[in-house]
């Protein structure tokens, strides 16, 4: 059976108390999640919630892994405001790199993205590199990519499952192991994506913020 990844991206949302509430609510789905041996559920909260999220995952014994949403292109050191891969590794196993919101709002270049990937790999983190289409370059050593068409992000206007399949098939043929779709994924459309042969999973943003919606994306995937 195909293994499916569900990666929730909270972006720059939630305070500590909101995160605690989210975990308390989603914990009521624990027994249903425990049966899902063919799924890897990854939550990417903002940096300041990684430690709390790790504690809540333990407290409620949820079958969730953690990811960060970004990583410094440098090692630990005098880089004010940055969080290094070694620091992320204390809490998380995965890291999103090159999300289009970072490329657009923080002028991230392919070169910076390659440096971030290198730092993530050196620290033993699994990078999930976001691509906008078939031609987006992906640095060496990456096995997991997420196709995130800009028009579909946060718009409620998802790409078609056929388009996602077409783009992700190209990446599969290039040897990428996990090829994920992101952009307006919700509980109703998730299965149309995950049922495509080349789609290894989904990356919901908006619908990961609500614990019930996120739980239903997981259960319907
Ligand atoms: P969305 O975000 O689900 O709100 O479209 C997806 C993403 O940007 O990762």
Overall pLDDT metric:
97
> Helix content range of the residues, please?
25-40%
Bound molecules: 2-phosphoglycolic acid
Which band does the percent of strand residues land in? 15-25%
Structural class: alpha/beta
- Write the element-wise H/E pattern from the N-terminal end onward: EHHEHEHEHHEEHEHEH
Span between N and C termini? 13 Å
Annotation, overall tally of beta strands? 8
Distinct helical segment count: 9
Key features of this structure:
binds 2-phosphoglycolic acid, alpha/beta, 9 helices
Please provide a written account of the structure.
The model has no long low-confidence stretch (mean pLDDT 97). By secondary structure, this protein is of the alpha/beta class. The protein has helices at 16-26, 30-34, 50-59, 85-88, 100-105, 110-122, 161-173, 190-194, 211-220; strands spanning 4-9, 39-44, 64-68, 94-97, 126-131, 144-147, 178-181, 201-202. Helix 8 links the parallel strand 7 and strand 8 (201-202). The protein has an 8-stranded parallel beta barrel, surrounded by 4 helices. 2-phosphoglycolic acid (PGA) binds at residues 9, 148, 153-154, 182-185, 203-207. 2-phosphoglycolic acid is lined by residues 9, 148, 153-154, 182-185, 203-207.
Quick recap:
By secondary structure, the protein is α/β, with parallel strands linked by helices. It contains nine helices and eight strands.
Helix-strand layout with pairing:
Blueprint: E1 4-9, H1 16-26, H2 30-34, E2 39-44, H3 50-59, E3 64-68, H4 85-88, E4 94-97, H5 100-105, H6 110-122, E5 126-131, E6 144-147, H7 161-173, E7 178-181, H8 190-194, E8 201-202, H9 211-220
Parallel strand pairs: 1-2, 1-8, 2-3, 3-4, 4-5, 5-6, 6-7, 7-8
Helix pairs in contact: 1-3, 1-9
Bound molecules: 2-phosphoglycolic acid.
